[in-house]
Amino acid sequence: MPSNGHKQLKIAVIGGGSTYTPELIEGFLARRDELPVGEVWLMDLPEAEEKLRIVAGLAERMSARCGRPFAVIQTTDRRAALDGADFVITQMRVGQLAARIRDERIPLSHGVIGQETTGPGGFANALRTIPVVLAICRDLAELAPEAWLINFANPSGLVTEAVTRYTKVKVVGLCNVPLNMQAGLAKAFGVDPAEIYVEFVGCNHLVWANRVFCRGVEVTERAIELTAEDPALNMKNIPHRTWSRDFLLSLGAIPCGYHRYYYLTKEILAELLEAEAAGRPTRGEVVREVEAELLRLYQDPGLDHKPEALAKRGGALYSEAAVRLISSLHHDRRDIQCVDTTNRGALADLLPEAVVEVNCVITAQGPQPIAVGHLRPQLRGLLQQVKAYEELTVEAAVTGDRGLALQALAAHPLVPSISVARALLADLLGANRDFLPQFKI
Amino acid sequence: MPSNGHKQLKIAVIGGGSTYTPELIEGFLARRDELPVGEVWLMDLPEAEEKLRIVAGLAERMSARCGRPFAVIQTTDRRAALDGADFVITQMRVGQLAARIRDERIPLSHGVIGQETTGPGGFANALRTIPVVLAICRDLAELAPEAWLINFANPSGLVTEAVTRYTKVKVVGLCNVPLNMQAGLAKAFGVDPAEIYVEFVGCNHLVWANRVFCRGVEVTERAIELTAEDPALNMKNIPHRTWSRDFLLSLGAIPCGYHRYYYLTKEILAELLEAEAAGRPTRGEVVREVEAELLRLYQDPGLDHKPEALAKRGGALYSEAAVRLISSLHHDRRDIQCVDTTNRGALADLLPEAVVEVNCVITAQGPQPIAVGHLRPQLRGLLQQVKAYEELTVEAAVTGDRGLALQALAAHPLVPSISVARALLADLLGANRDFLPQFKI
Amino acid sequence: MPSNGHKQLKIAVIGGGSTYTPELIEGFLARRDELPVGEVWLMDLPEAEEKLRIVAGLAERMSARCGRPFAVIQTTDRRAALDGADFVITQMRVGQLAARIRDERIPLSHGVIGQETTGPGGFANALRTIPVVLAICRDLAELAPEAWLINFANPSGLVTEAVTRYTKVKVVGLCNVPLNMQAGLAKAFGVDPAEIYVEFVGCNHLVWANRVFCRGVEVTERAIELTAEDPALNMKNIPHRTWSRDFLLSLGAIPCGYHRYYYLTKEILAELLEAEAAGRPTRGEVVREVEAELLRLYQDPGLDHKPEALAKRGGALYSEAAVRLISSLHHDRRDIQCVDTTNRGALADLLPEAVVEVNCVITAQGPQPIAVGHLRPQLRGLLQQVKAYEELTVEAAVTGDRGLALQALAAHPLVPSISVARALLADLLGANRDFLPQFKI
Amino acid sequence: MPSNGHKQLKIAVIGGGSTYTPELIEGFLARRDELPVGEVWLMDLPEAEEKLRIVAGLAERMSARCGRPFAVIQTTDRRAALDGADFVITQMRVGQLAARIRDERIPLSHGVIGQETTGPGGFANALRTIPVVLAICRDLAELAPEAWLINFANPSGLVTEAVTRYTKVKVVGLCNVPLNMQAGLAKAFGVDPAEIYVEFVGCNHLVWANRVFCRGVEVTERAIELTAEDPALNMKNIPHRTWSRDFLLSLGAIPCGYHRYYYLTKEILAELLEAEAAGRPTRGEVVREVEAELLRLYQDPGLDHKPEALAKRGGALYSEAAVRLISSLHHDRRDIQCVDTTNRGALADLLPEAVVEVNCVITAQGPQPIAVGHLRPQLRGLLQQVKAYEELTVEAAVTGDRGLALQALAAHPLVPSISVARALLADLLGANRDFLPQFKI
User: Looking at domain A9-173+287-327, which of 3.40.50.1820, 3.20.20.140, 1.20.1260.10, 3.40.50.720 is its CATH number?
Assistant: First the structure.
């Protein structure tokens, strides 16, 4: 008889030296009765070894404080981490924060919003990250063919799509945006998050709450009103602006925070340019400070729990998203979670093979997307355009074809002309030269 | 704040005089802690009043035995039953068993399998039943616009599709076949039914177990082997024959019992013709005997529970299917059940507006189908052909267009030529004249 | 036996006072042996009667010079013009050139390119024009139900889509852009236009040459090279800029002139703003001068042919497009022309009911689009986004729903934020108040 | 500058010893002014060398009589025939007429209609023919990569689909059925065939006239009436039966002759069984006699034209179909012909990669299908089911997978049960053992 129940799980975290890791550790500890984690391998690059040592130390103390339900192993040997893993979490940033800051700065120097996930900054990040994740997949095929790859590496949707198109690895892309939207709506309605059901449609960092239900009753219009009045959707790393009521009502859906870059391009660009002129730091530079502070805190040998300050980092519900997904995959729980997976017709306006972010039933065989059908034109056009950009970016990242890279940037709604696209591409490829062996520059 | 929790529900059962009703009553009683049913209205036609009296009497005694959690009301006033109902269950047979027996006998006289649900007999049944259900829907729009219509009236998929195409009533079609297949597989694997997950694809009485999982692990091939060896899928009302192992393995899926009519047409037809020649009764005639016996039992004033003999009737898990669905709709439970609902792209090989029988997440807003994508050609062609027949039948039933009715029968895989279709149609329309006012015969 | 051959055709030209009309008259004269036109009715509004008189006078002299093969009738009675017509050509501009100039100026005052067909200016034009064309369609249903409506009224694709969605009138949308692209490519290759075959894909004023063939051999790459070197595609009313070679090669297709607004948004906007600052006229203002000059010329009683100066107006091949189409519809010629018609699956990335601009076989039953399948992502995303904008605009124009109008503008790639969309919408609705009775402003 | 115009073409005819060949030669001669054929290579197997000699002799005399515009070369060396060919016509029958007669006889012995193209007989033929055509394609890739393969080898649609799915060869499937339907309708309307336009939809030997136009006017209903009264569609090799008027009118389309096997299965089966019982020959046996007679005629050294008797063979318009297609491909004529080619969305109810038989614009790049959209359910279901059978058959023929072969036969509408399918498959595989190396029997 098949059974999954009693095995001790091996978790591998690629980019384990991230300051987010304590969040994840806390998640595994919180669910230790439900999820039999035996080992957590924290893997990072040799050049991040010092950081990894600090983070792993805290992780170890956190586990110890709870009676050490699982071992914490630190390593710079990626193959050792992957070997026999049950779940692999990719959360690394190729090029570290320095690359992110370039992803924000370079586009701005061309009069373009950078935005490190959904913007041209995310484009550069995708070019750097996709080859690394595909290399991990090649290792997985050999060392842990049955493992689930839980991808958090940004841009999460793009990276996930690359894995689905070019490998046979079992992959789910994940993001904390949907969970945060649900939590925000629950707060606005004054109920428990479990009492709110949101029909999510879209792709990563371009996801809408298409319909909202509270205790089983559709409340979409009321949710829109509440959102317009008091934006529950603001996130740390997104310049906050309130949606206007008339726009939201005629949209008929609630955008995620990242939609602001598309809906308020002009205002956000002006704000960013002004900040730059004033010498204010980018979000990446702020994060660099936060990280330094966090690492100082983590070094405290007396610290054996996730510090409050981590909240500033912007990853609310990150561990909840990850551990809940792993648990449902492991236990074949068949509950509904919003994740990034292959469309298969769930959104009729995109190709079946595109990766989308929709509600899925999470089974031991992976996410099964719930069919939504066609979207209203208000949502459809933007989603299709961004998805075309994503498809071009994935192809460019895998092939190193400069023409495709140009087409990807030219297709991006934030890039105002192909001349800008060309100049911006040249700069991004130049600045990321060391991370882009696939491009013959 | 929206809330569904504390209201006492009114259930209306159209065709309440059916001998199946005690099954349903038992289901409501078994879930009385979870589902706050306040009234069960049993409605039937004046000509069935005696039968209704007997059945309602037993239902009343069953409720009384459990402390009378709900009232049982019998009526021949359909509007009174529907008025303010929360859930309406349609389980009537238009024309009673006499019509069913004609549905079986008339095709046979043309050398064609009748089959009262998926065969040409079901075609005649659809022509009779669809106008009645649409009339109920018109009443519902006025008397209980928020009610859910749970359709069991056969042919369930066709009737459900007519409701979705021609009304705005909230409807779910239901059948006990998927639950029985799941139960049969559970028995074969020696596990609890909850530990078996079946990916169902198809339409009503033409549903396949496309993939089977046991405790989260795919076991489709083993399930096929077990099915081939010891058919767990046999049903009372279907001549039983074992599928052959080579056929099932190359099919790659497990058919439902009713598939036999398509896969073993020649053998079943020969068997039925032989039975007729030998003067043996049809299934409808057997059921008539069983029903008479059941009604005799139900009259016993000492009987206050569902009698064992009801099992012979063939409706195993009927109450389970109905009450579980109602409970999930009421409580927005979001569990997965296989029901008949609008496709919306879940099966990419059928039109989005077709009614299909697939796994759905059951929410307070109704079933949300889980996307499957394209089917292999082994399943695809037969499903598409039968669905085209169904679409033609729905249109013929609503419009009374004799040409469409001829096309429907001609498109049916069991009808061996258009000459046969024409003669058979003439006989079916003639014999059902009193129930088919939409046809100008 | 059906026959179309010997009837004298009645042509009705709505907006017959346009200075383009001599172009059309010339076309009918040139094909007089092939197309049996009996009457050309030139209809215009009472306020344009003077202009109509001048234009009709020239038309009459042109016909007379060729032996008066058809009568020219001028009228301000629209119903009289439509009554019994075989072909109705709509070429009017609702609000005249004054409205066009506002369509160009108002967006610019918000820092947005106006562009009177494919830009936000065209959006305002669509709001004005669609109700008028739908009113014509209501008349046609009564007065000439078999007539073909040949729509040139801009934005041609949007107007055509409105007619297909909301009426049963037989309509074809038309534009001279594809013919000009073909002619330009023929010139570049040094061959006759008939020797060039272009696979057009897209929608009106957003059409690409997806593949190019010369004498039956695919020459797409060479055509791209030639286009990059020496743009044959420039049009009078579009600021000219040369596409870059690397962009075109990686695009893999040749854009039309109007694509510049999307591909070179930043540069064209800067140019337009600079022109405005310098007090230079908009294209509409230039056209106003050209028109005044043309009308002066047309008044010369000695003039009996199309004057050379009309070429400045920018409508090269306008009559060729119109008369060739009418002739093929009339004679069931089944040749291939690129027109605007219902998709029906020809472009798999758009809804079947969307109006697209693709190669069609022109039969007496109308255009039959040639199937292309899916487009590459380079073309797909932009086309889908613009089509979503168009769908929203059509709905807004028909319903007068201000929310939909806001969504349409917000979805337009040239509008940089919803704040801008809102302010721009307010101005456009205000300035066009007299032409927008459907909006409760 | 590209040019196709002056080259002398090499035509290779695989199965050149067929008695049909003079038909083809006559076609090339009739179009010799338009189509510059330089050489016609007639290739056949060594065991058919005598037949080839006779046929090639006649072909040579026919050419000589017209001034020898092209040379006729006979060969048993397939690679020599293919080397440098411009057009390759495949018209061979693998296993000769003896195999065809088995294809007819064996199914009948199982109580099933054989039908050598669209029935289970055609299934056996596909298993034999597909591997041979794929071998030819491998040679072509090497010896004449730019050649067009014009496939007449039956079952033509299945063979063409195999080539499109498994090779890169440029292929068009062809059949004379559409041309004959058009000719029959022209005769019924008393007009020239060129004045009739038929919208064909379906797949090979399952093609409907979906709409009919006469001189540009839709006359579908009248065409149906005429067909019902006096079937113009009868073919030599199909037992003739008149369609009934009521069936055709509610079908709304005109079936091809081969539809009889599906629409009148019972009657045709009875007729065939009766003929067998009476010792009457099958169609294949009749054809064997006709062929022997033809070969006797062909041997006459005085014969230098196509003999009248060839008409009995049943291939009316065969040469017209082939030569007209070749001429349009060669000259990039862009006229409309009904051929077998990849769907690409033209029929929305089938997969884009399925081979369909629809109207196409014939260009030098091959046929471009005209989009039709969705079909009515009357046509849709049967077409989808037969197409699923075809897909399974192609896969079985290529892989030699016996399970797929069983599924193909079980999916065939003429096979009344899987038990029959299994027994029939065993016999067909056994009897064709020598031609089916791909099956491990």
Answer: 3.40.50.720
